Amino acid sequence: MVRILRGKPVRRSRRDWAVDTSAFLLAAVFSAATSEPVVNHPDVTEAWLAADQLAGALACAALWLRRRWPVGVALAIVPVSAFSHFVAGPLEVALFTVAVHRRPRTVAWVGGLALAAMLATATVIRPDPVNPELDAFLGLVLIGGVIGWGLYVRSRRQLIASLWEKARRDTREAIAREMHDVLAHRLSLLSVHAGALEFRADTPPEEVRLAAGVIRQSAHQALEELREVIGVLRSDTGDGDRPQPTLADLPRLAEESRRAGTRVELEQRVEAPETLPQATGRTVYRVVQEGLTNARKHAPGSGARVTVAGAPGEGLTVEVRNRLGRSPAAPGQAAEGAVPGAGMGLTGLAERVALAGGRLEHGRTGGDFRLRAWLPWRA
């Protein structure tokens, strides 16, 4: 059997079969279990009782169509419920379905019609000879209860869907942030070496060979690091097969920038670095990487000073400072001949630091540009 979803046939899953069968049985059992007052009512004839039971059976069968036409099934059962007790169970299931799958406005007027039919039965058509007020109150509680339950299920499903959407959005942002950090650094190195070959036509063949080798190595490392990033994001545990950069990789990062022509001074004053969480060390690495990349792009030829200091319980401070030069490029703009950027590097870095519970500051300080981050480090 198939069901229709937004005009397209969809095969009913095992879960759908189980839910629909349970709803059918629950509706039938509820109607039968609460039928004693109707069966023993002095005004109910055998013909009326048989017609009532037939109406209940048809209403239970109509529940198999509730996924395709929830409002239509409910509206078909509501007027019959004013005269038939055995459709009470199917009516409750139909109202629950409308509350789950339709907007609150639709739920309100369908529920209002059901309440009107119930009140007409309890007060005019077939009032309880002993306590009609209690009968009307119980009907009100049942209808209000199933509608409230349905609205709760609807809101919970919407919450879960929004959480899934947020998780997908966060994943996309994490991919973009990691790819920017990796590729911007490597491409800036490629740009420096390629620019040297472009503007120095008299470069000796040996230096050309060395520069080409550096370009090839940087391109290879860019692909490797990009594969590491994707591996981490695909991993269920959040850890890739290859180790991610940490605090111990800062000397290698500084040496790469020196080979590209940037004078880098690295000073580390970190107590017990072996106790630093890997995630914090990776964030420090990305801060320094972004700072050195921006120095090459916006102030080529200037030196950069990197300072990392901290201790457990005090937090970790990382600072990248470089001279702006005579005609520095504005933030978000690359110097002439450099790799252009999207202007999102510092924005993504701020998000990364904030996720780690830290703070990021950047801007001009005298004749320097300073990028400074503080990260928590529990004792």
From TrEMBL:
Residues 172-236 form the Signal transduction histidine kinase subgroup 3 dimerisation and phosphoacceptor domain. It comes from Streptomyces glaucosporus. The chain crosses the membrane at residues 73-100, 107-125, 137-153. One of its GO terms (molecular function) is kinase activity. Gene3D superfamilies: 1.20.5.1930, Histidine kinase-like ATPase, C-terminal domain. This is histidine kinase. It catalyses: ATP + protein L-histidine = ADP + protein N-phospho-L-histidine. Coiled coil: none annotated. InterPro entries: HATPase_C_sf, Sensor_HK_TwoCompSys, Sig_transdc_His_kin_sub3_dim/P. The keyword Phosphoprotein applies. Pfam families: HisKA_3. Its EC number is 2.7.13.3. Keywords: ATP-binding, Kinase, Membrane, Nucleotide-binding, Phosphoprotein, Transferase, Transmembrane, Transmembrane helix, Two-component regulatory system. It is an enzyme of class 2 (transferase). It comes from the Bacteria.
